[in-house]
Description:
Strand order of the largest sheet: 1-11-10-9-5-6
Helix content: 10-25%
Distance between the termini: 67 Å
Shape: globular
Amino acid sequence: MNSKNHISKLAVGLFALVLFASSCKKENGDEPLSLNNAKAVVSPVNTATITGNWGSGSVSYGTIKLPLAAGDTALFTNRDNSYITAPAGYTVKYLYTTISSTASIGTAQYALATTASAAGVGYNTGGGTPNGWYDYIPPGGITIIDYVYIFITNPLTLVTYVIKVVDVTPQQSGALDRAIIDVEYGVVN
């Protein structure tokens, strides 16, 4: 083998190696890819239990506050503290959807939500198109409507929270009653 052939093959090999190495170099603006480019839009999803105040038709149930974050609260009012609303000036909306995971709720769902009445979101009066998170089937049968989400937006910071009721346990003591309400909630990103 002559040295001219050997040098020529070595040069071609080095050129191929440099070409390969430079084609694999990451550019500064490239972002790493995540699995399916997916991420949770409500993260973290928090949980809380609201223990309603004892009351009856003629006795006030008062208001229970759920601290959301940064001084924002959700208000549980009305009968059995079962209506979810917010302080004056906040926007309250609701959405009935097929999304089952609170972590999957995002700004696209918020854009589809309906503005709630001043009373908030509670008992469903909308029939097959729910406008509340529960139905009441006598005697004493509270049924959660799956896939109803309540949104609360702070008017100053524009931070939006989502709340989903995941369980409710009615309690009765003589003429008084209350509800124990379990919720998931978080910031919509």
